[in-house]
TrEMBL record:
Residues 20-31 have a biased composition (Low complexity). Its main location: membrane. Residues 19-152, 165-290 form the C2 domain. Belongs to the copine family. This is C2 domain-containing protein. It is a lipid-anchor. GO terms for biological process: defense response. The gene is LOC100818746.
Length: 578
């Protein structure tokens, strides 16, 4: 490949480096060779056409994010590389990686007209440039590759390569250092207001980050400390992808824990990580505040928040594991209890709409499966049902959706959807609602992988149910037992049932699950969300369910001392056009 220089002003401006020295003299090569005037003249005098045409291209790439409504949002542009059919662009395009959503990307390649070479790329009108080709993929497809590189053929805008070769583009992803950084802190409070009558408050902290819409999403909770108005919590570790930049605003709320789930706010404060670092350095505290009902003002409290310890460190990220060969293996379990209603009736939660509108079960399977499938290489997913009467008249609390007693796996998300629809035709809805058997089945698979020294597999079980679990204590026992395994469990509640008692399964209340024998879960590995709350709000069921999954994955790997596999990453992104 020839040496190609760039950039936005006639190929003379430096890109990516800080040296003032010239990077080159604009030397270029052409893949079709140099044109020979004497040979050209000879062929013309003999009445022949030229054997080749001089081809030059000044390519630039525009990167877009494709939104759910199909609209494209421009993320950035590379520099222009002059007279080159095999360019390597230097300019990087920053894209925030969100595990919990599918992130479709499009790459459009343009040949920039010579008269625009002195115009900055950001102000170029793309309609004035020649379109060379495009391609698309998801960000997950790139980061799951061992080299974090993905090569794709260019196509025209209709999605075809026509009859001629439009070339190929290779996209390479590199994780920023900031996303691997983490902050570990020891937080404490003093002189908290007492919210209990017959004892002292049981305080815990919840830390949330601000999102684009102006609301806040919880990113961390401490443990609960009983009967203490001057608590000091165990260290909390916030990874960079959780809090964003050090200047991003965080809300730290102190609650008095109540077993009913109706926790009482003691006070709160808004500070960034940089602010918390400053508090540690100055060895000072900050007063908590609480909203006042009078004049819409905030009341400053006597209680204070302190940062007793603060340190920054780098650690292996979720992408480090995934790109080195680790996988997420998806499993699903569907509720076949009678409370769902007759599947033949349109008011049933299991009703299959003839016009293709998804019911709540189908929606949860599709949205979660579409995200996780990119992290499973063979896309063979175990799919079970529970609470249904299978052919033969037996009520089963863990049966294979596909109908084959000897095989639970189906091919892809569509395979799950097909198996679910077919099971509704042969399985009679029954009951009760028991989670224990499917959790134990998933735990058995995860345990087998662990004992087989297959430490690169992590399992994700999606349970979709319309009612409160009947075997609550047995379920808690199974979850505590499974907390030592490479397994996370996502629970979606569908329908209008009161799921309040189900929230105990999700350790977001500040306390880990405890079994009937007194054993405490080693980590939080359950996430529960009622579908109706998701549908009434702005956040999708996928985002609500999957946000904690990378951290649950990392907490398991770190607790076991499991590091990413050794790998060799390619150096730079390249593109070839012909």
């Amino acid at each position: 490949m020839g040496t190609c220089f760039s950039d936005i002003k006639g190929g003379k401006q430096a890109v990516g480096g800080k040296s003032n020295e010239a990077t080159g003299t604009g030397a270029t090569t052409n893949n079709n060779g140099g044109q020979n005037d004497a040979v050209d003249f000879f062929y013309k005098t003999q009445g022949f056409q030229q054997l080749f045409t001089q081809v030059e291209s000044d390519p630039m790439v525009v990167v877009y994010a494709k939104k759910r409504d199909g609209k494209l949002e421009e993320l950035g542009r590379t520099e222009v590389i002059l007279n080159c059919l095999n360019p390597e662009w230097i300019e990087k395009i920053s894209v925030a990686f969100h595990f919990e959503i599918v992130q479709p990307l499009e790459f459009h390649v343009y040949d920039i007209d010579t008269k625009y070479h002195s115009v900055p790329t950001k102000t170029l009108k793309l309609g004035d440039q020649e379109f060379l080709g495009m391609t698309s993929c998801t960000l997950s497809e790139i980061v799951t590759k061992p080299s974090r590189s993905l090569s794709l053929r260019l196509q025209n805008k209709s999605g075809h390569g026509v009859l001629r070769n439009l070339g190929a583009i290779t996209i390479h992803a590199e994780e920023t250092v900031a996303s691997k950084s983490a902050v570990e802190m020891v937080l404490s409070c003093s002189h908290l207001d007492n919210k209990d009558v017959f004892s002292k408050s049981d305080p815990f902290l919840r830390i949330s980050r601000m999102i684009e819409s102006g609301g806040y999403i919880p990113i961390c909770k401490t443990e609960v400390i009983n009967d203490n108005l001057n608590p000091k919590w165990k260290p909390v570790c916030l990874s960079g992808h959780k809090f964003g930049s050090k200047d991003s605003p965080l809300v730290i709320e102190c609650f008095d824990f109540n077993s009913s789930g109706d926790h009482v706010l003691i006070g709160k404060v808004q500070k960034s990580v940089a602010d918390l670092e400053k508090l540690y350095g100055e060895r000072t505290g900050v007063n908590l505040i609480i909203p006042s009902t009078r004049h819409r003002q905030e009341k400053v409290l006597k209680g204070q928040l302190f940062v007793d310890q603060y340190c920054e460190k780098e650690q292996f990220s979720f992408i480090d594991y995934i790109s080195s060969g680790f996988e997420l293996n998806f499993m699903v379990a569907v509720d076949f209890t009678a409370s769902n209603g007759n599947p033949q009736h349109s008011d049933s939660l299991h009703y299959i709409d003839a016009y293709g509108r998804l019911n709540s079960y189908q929606q949860a399977i599709m949205e979660v499966g579409e995200v996780i499938q990119f992290y499973d290489s063979d896309r063979q997913f175990p799919a079970w049902g529970f609470g249904g009467k299978i052919p033969g008249g037996t009520v089963s609390h863990c049966f294979n959706l596909c109908g084959n007693p000897g095989a639970s796996e189906v091919a892809g998300v569509e395979g799950i959807m097909d198996a679910y629809a077919s099971a509704l035709c042969r399985v009679t809805l029954s009951g009760p609602t028991l989670f224990g058997p499917v959790i134990n089945m998933a735990a058995q698979i995860a345990s087998h992988a662990l004992t087989s020294h297959c430490s690169t597999k992590y399992y994700v079980l999606l349970i979709i149910t319309d009612g409160v679990v009947t075997d609550l204590q047995e379920t808690i026992n199974a979850l505590v037992e499974a907390s030592d395994l490479p397994l996370s469990i996502l629970i979606v509640g569908v329908g209008s049932a009161d799921f309040t008692s189900m929230e105990v399964l999700d350790a977001d209340n500040g306390r880990r699950l405890e079994s009937s024998t007194g054993r405490v879960a080693t980590r939080d590995m359950v996430q529960f969300v009622p579908m109706r709350e998701v549908q009434s709000g702005q956040i999708s069921v996928v985002r609500a369910l999957l946000e904690e999954l990378p951290d649950q994955f990392l907490s398991f790997m770190r607790s076991r001392g499991i590091n990413p596999l050794p790998s060799h990453f390619s150096k730079a992104s390249t593109s070839t056009m012909q």
